[in-house]
Target: alpha-galactosidase
Amino acid sequence: MFLVALSVGAFGSPLTKRAVTLPPLNGKADYQIGGPYTPASDVLVVTRDNTASPVASKYNICYINAFQTQPDAASFWQSSANAGLLLHKASGALFEDPDWPGEYFLDTRTDANRQAIATIINGWIDSCQAKGFNAIEPDNLDTFTRSNNLLTAADNLALAKLFTDHAHSIGLAVAQKNTGGDLGSTGKSTVGFDFAVAEECQEYEECDSYTDVYGDNIIEIEYTDNGIAAWNSACSARGSSISVIYRDRDVVPSGDSAYHYQEC
Model:
């Protein structure tokens, strides 16, 4: 599927949007952000971290942690040049993700910060495009829901618009990662997201918030630590229309004893 348009919105100047290709509808997907490995021959869509390379003859999605830091990037974000881009609590301590130790929220509250963060993220997006990825998956859009009201949806969306416009200008599609229940259609209509990657939407009973906006342009991931019932229900409800994946929480590579992968 191809989309051609102008990226125009409330958060920035229009950028020409080149033709972008969306993932094949209901194309069997594999989610490899915890480490790359050779996918099964019938897999059509592969998601990998931006530090990895895409897979030939597949639709490749480039994962970017766009609203908080990766544990192995602490020195980069805490350098003198970038330390002001991190969110601090009133105590002065960095705001650490309560669920992912070692990951710190980015401070999206000012236009200057958003522009500086986007400059960094857009460089990573350029690298994804140069490697041959077809799309990007910017993660942790929902930090505003976990920031004790320090961050807002409007500011996170304004940042998302900056790198979505950039990705579109170089021919990459952009996924809305999670946050469906909090944003409704706003992510698509305001930011310009093209499709969705939804984690645990069956577990949290919010899959309709994605299908209502993106139809079947969705990849769903349920996790083994929630038990298989949610995945079975997801397969029954949507497995004939979209790719629904059942993966281990840390999405480790095949060959690791904790690896698990199933797809409806």
The chain is about 25% helix and 25% strand. The radius of gyration is 18 Å.
